[in-house]
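Colleagues,

Please find the record for the two-part complex below.
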Amino acid sequence: MSLRVRVSTGLVTVQDIGRSHMLHRGVPRAGALSPLRLMETNRLLGNDDNAAAIEVVGRLSVECMRACVVATSDGRVHELTPGASIEVEPPANARVAYVAVRGGIEVPRRMGSRSTWLAANYGGFQGRTLRRDDVLDVGDSTRHAPTRASELALAVRLLRGPDESRFASDAFETLLKSAPRISASSNRVATRLDGVSLPYDATRVYPSAPMIEGAIEVLADGTPIVLGPEHPITGGYPVIAFVATESLSAFHTIGVSSTVSFEQGA
Amino acid sequence: MKPFGDRGIVVPRGSATASDLHEVRNRLPGCVDYLLTENEVALIFAERPRVTLEEVAAALRGGAASVTPDTTHSFQARYNGEDLDAVASQCGMHRDDLVALHMSVTYRVAFLGFMPGFAYLRGLPEPLVLPRRRTPRARVPAMSIAIGGPYTGVYPFESAGGWHLLGQLVAPVLFDEELGPRLRHGDCVRFVEAR
């Protein structure tokens, strides 16, 4: 069974949860922006949590070659007749949508995952975004009973970072209270925050430091960026804070130009 | 020992070897991954870490010496980089001597990072240690062999970059289509001039 891409604009990629625990190999997770949202979309169909789906930051129209059942991350399940197609884009104020198909998308696993690491042209469907006329294979069985989606808590918890002393003494509090907006210049490597500036002396060069998903690095011009699934594993900018692990899935669903509400994490 | 997000801690790297680090996930309860830089080790846990400094130090101190031999990679190279003459001049040597000097060393992977498949290689001879270029390039060709500060390395893919370009690998061997990044902590690298 296959799906054929009719229209694809923006960053449309095959993703599963990603490559866990591979930082020691220089490999970031590089999976879904919002793993929880992907998992829930899979659960609507009875797929494994980690079945590969299509991540849509942009627009997708996809056609079923035979009858199939797909689910979208707005919680809806669609039974498609042969040749029928479905259009998917993130809802208003959301950054990303997922399209799962019963049985999961089948592309070869690379380092244990079907997700796409765009920066390395690795994994997923030929290591790239999907294009018109791409044909995706689909698996043929599921093992679970379908379950309903649940809401993701939207508060984004922040923890203090290791480089606070390089900033003004209240920089972390400034960030916490700032209500910044998600910049349109965001991607799978990092999310840029507009509307908050955290100045510091950027002239001194520091050695590269470890970086993880959720670390908030501050660029030389004071712009904070939140590292995403395809983050480089080392970086040279100071880290003022981290988005708590439990908040990452929700953070990555907040739409471009929408406001982020931070709270203090434990 | 400092917290690093809610699942990590950062400690000084000290003299922990690549095989010590490889074992740390077995020796420290809950430790699932780690990251290295020049000076630090970040240890990543499945949940909020509950280890003491003593436990971490003991886990990093190492046990029995590793019995696996080092992996040595030999990369075919063409020394035709845009900065070769400028570097030779800056270091006060003929370009052939610069090339010979660069090839004379067995480098060791100090840490991974910066971009997919990239490894910072330790062992650059002292006469070749230079500050990064004042103006980084917007585009460094894929497979470029470069030097910057005390390190040498190869850009696996096209990238922006601030190091001095000495040449290029003959083949794209740093990032395998199936297996991913080729270079691992503790691996050795030699460059061999292609004929």
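Chain B is about 20% helix and 35% strand.

Comments are welcome before we finalize the supplementary table.
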